[in-house]
Amino acid sequence: MTRPTSRTLARYGLEDARVTAELRTMGLAVDSSAAPGSEDVLAAISRTGRPDLAVHNLAAVLQSAPDGATLLRRLHENPRFRARLLGVMGGSTGLSDHLAANPEQWHLLTEEAVPGELITAAAMRAVVFRSVGVDPDDPVCTGTEGARATVTGGSAVLALRRAYRSQLLIIAAHDLAPAVESSLPVTALPAVCQALSDLADATLQAGLSVAAAALPAGVAPVRLAVIAMGKCGAKELNYLSDVDVIFAAEHPPAAGGEAPDDTRMLATATALASGMMRICGQAAWEVDANLRPEGKAGALVRTLASHAAYYQRWAHTWEFQALLKARPAAGDPDVGAGFAAITSPGVWSAAGRDSFVDDVQAMRRRVEANIPEDLKDKELKLGAGGLRDVEFAVQLLQLVHGRTDEDLRLPGTLMALRSLIRGGYVGRTDGAEMAAAYTFLRRAEHRLQLQRLRRTHLLPEDQDDLEWLARTDGYTATGTSSAAEVFTADRNRHSASVRRLHEKLFYRPLLHAVAAVPSEELRLTTEAATARMAALGFRNPDAALRHLRALTSGVSRRAAIQRTLLPVLMDTFASSPDPDAGLLSYRQVSEALADTPWYLRLLRDEGLVAQRLGALLGGSKLVGNLLVRAPEVLRLLVDDVSLLAPQPDDVRTALLARSRRAHTAQEAVDAARSARRHEMLRLACGDLLGLIEVADIATGLTSVAEASLQAAYEAALKQVTADRGGRVRGRLAVIGMGRLGGAELSYSSDADVIYVAEPLDGEDARGGMDDMSAVADLMARLLGRPSPDPPLLVDANLRPEGRNGPLVRTLEAYRAYWHKFAAPWERQALLRARPIAGDSELGTAFILAADEFRYPVGGLDSRDVIEIRRIKARVDAERLPRGADPTTHTKLGRGGLSDVEWTVQLLQLQHAAQVPELRITRTLEAIDAAATARIITDSDAEALRGGWLAAARARNALMLVRGKPEDQIPAHGRELMGIARALGYPEGGDPGEFVDDYRRATRRARRVVDRLFDSS
């Protein structure tokens, strides 16, 4: 054998001075003293996770070992032993330190042990039990009965730690060896996890024996079962995991007919459990009992009857999901079996609970929300595409389908995934890809934890540590890429697979259940698909499956694209407030656009559009209703810039240009209505996506309504002119009133208007007014034709004498009426008057005349103030619908729109003559002007503004969610959840938080209203 030279060391990357010196002490670095086979040793060292560390750790072990020469000889002669020892030396500082402190244990690595074969549960149990003086053949400790440890106290902890680490050393050595010697078989991940779990069981049992030995004489007898949960319960434990447990206790068989004393028995059980947790925590790993009923606040130990009562009455869905992995691990096996019998029925009926979907979604969000932003990309466990995503997906499928399929009732993730594949709940290819990703992530987590024997699942930031991790997992440099770079590329690929397969695992098999698929594909039965739809939150699973069948059946290109799109959309629908409505709307839109070539292509090629569409349809009936008739808005969902680009003036110009190209009056108004529909849908989408503020929504809706009225005016004027021989004898101005005049329209607002007309010079006065009345009447009829869109109803009832008065009046007639007959409320109504369509000169003249009336010099007299207060009290008493909640009615409720607007308008009537800044039609601007003029305080202004905005936003959200006008916030249910989501409250949060915020804002506003309105 060629002996190593300095050039050889350089070839193996071992030329560092300290490394060379340590190699020299071991006879590996120089020609004159190197032993035969040294180059093989050097080659093996170079393949370890961190060669310099392997050399340093090996030197430390050789220095402390009394039979170091024998060790070194075995290292040269036995490649299997060499790979195991060097794998540990270069992969784990913690185990290397243990071996240096206990050098005789190197002999443990000479046996051809493979986890699951020579490292059996019985062999590990024997080592661990004997370390604390328990004969493995004696009956195990079950509480106060069975074999107790003869080694106790601190000595027991040290002995148990040493024994535990010795077995951990064997497992890790066989796990790490193939990266050093590629000819060795790879130790399968399940075998490693099984061995670690068996070692944990033995350690828990030994800890219980030590704790029992420490009990004082005379304690009440007890049978205690230790129930393993989480990864230990599933026998898929990590090298460094907390061991999650639950304790159950019972009395031994009664003797002498004495009534058992639960208090004394549970006191003993608690002392035993606490002692075992302390001993195992000091010797091996933390024992975590926080999954017990009521968590940290609950009793550490309960009787079986107490457990049964809790899980039958109080347990949350997530607790049953956790119990899916429960198994007796130590202590009394009969009590452990009793616990399993009590809890198992709840596990396999959890998916039928009313709260199942909400609980599962809330738990999923909680996991993601708890990850600090700067750690999300480093998380192997909790981050997107991490271990928890795989485990969560598999467990949810188990809970849904395990109710009827007992083959799925398995605790381990990989075991359960294989069973899901066999049963057809997961496709073979998808399942294999998911299993490969899970195995990769778990192996990476294991090697991370072995590096320094620390509990972690965060990828290291230090590149040297990342290179160490990659090499320990068997990665090598490739071309110009380091091992760390190759590892990172694989990690990104596997994480992306997990993210992508998550939606496929849930949703694609649903499509296979309802559509024709290739014969080699496994598929869900219709019954299984129905169960899964119900578990995902669909209230009518049968109808949902019919929608899927209609969308995906057949061999057309359209059906194929739908089968690709729907898994993404179904995920979005399932997390929306109303999954059923979302899927129904999507079917309706898809059928309406079946012959539109760009529709499905846009959804397929622009992922953001599909996601946004799913969220919008699942959260808003208004969007679904409008989208069928305005599909071109979908193109604007590509990005925020496209959605926000249209400006009110540009929309108005385009609307009027389009209507003016029409040939008939009805076509002109239909064109305007189409443009209004398009703009209303755009604004609704921006609103739901949180991109447009309520004031801008009002501006946009008002602008497009004004343009529609102008288009209707022009069309009606053209039609009446044609009908009357080519000329009309008057001119007409349309004056906006109410929310239209205030530029504060909501999605459900009518168009309040009044008309002012004048005969043309030299024309018959009556004829001119008749012509203008015909124009006004035709405008309203053209705009009021039945339509699926939210109508723009023209309401002229605010005119003098209301419905009984003439539809149009001359300016002089208005002046005369205001002078002789007008009531105080009519001054108030005119505060929002503003020309919006028709003859601009006449509209301006009307406003000048109205100013004299609505801004009276000297303000209102006391009688007018009293009358306005009386009318307001009457409105409060009579117009609020019977049964309505006055604290959550957005228009007429306390502190809502009406309260704030009446208060602000009273201030305008009283002060606008002296304060010109108050002569504005918008409520929020009037509030600001009143505060600037010191008529009200800043805090009062803030309260009024807050109440008005809260009510305006909620009113818009009601229309978005329900698709029809509504002013009352619902008390509970999906609609309330939808409204909260539409207003930006988080998915899965308590919608009561929104209601509390709303009531808080309107209460503040109402206090100001009560003070200002009654004392003004």
TrEMBL record:
CDD domains, A to Z: NT_GlnE_GlnD_like
Protein keywords: ATP-binding, Ligase, Magnesium, Multifunctional enzyme, Nucleotide-binding, Nucleotidyltransferase, Transferase
PII-uridylyltransferase/Glutamine-synthetase adenylyltransferase domain boundaries: 362-506, 885-1013
GO molecular function terms listed in the Swiss-Prot or TrEMBL record: [glutamate-ammonia-ligase] adenylyltransferase activity; ATP binding; ligase activity
Gene Ontology biological process terms from the UniProt entry: regulation of glutamine family amino acid metabolic process
Alphabetical list of InterPro entries matching this protein: GlnE (IPR023057), GlnE_rpt_dom (IPR005190), NT_sf (IPR043519), PII_UdlTrfase/GS_AdlTrfase (IPR013546)
Domain Glutamate-ammonia ligase adenylyltransferase repeated stretches: 154-340, 611-846
Gene3D superfamilies membership: Beta Polymerase, domain 2 (3.30.460.10), Nucleotidyltransferases domain 2 (1.20.120.330)
Name of the protein in its database record: Glutamate-ammonia-ligase adenylyltransferase
Source organism (scientific name): Nakamurella panacisegetis
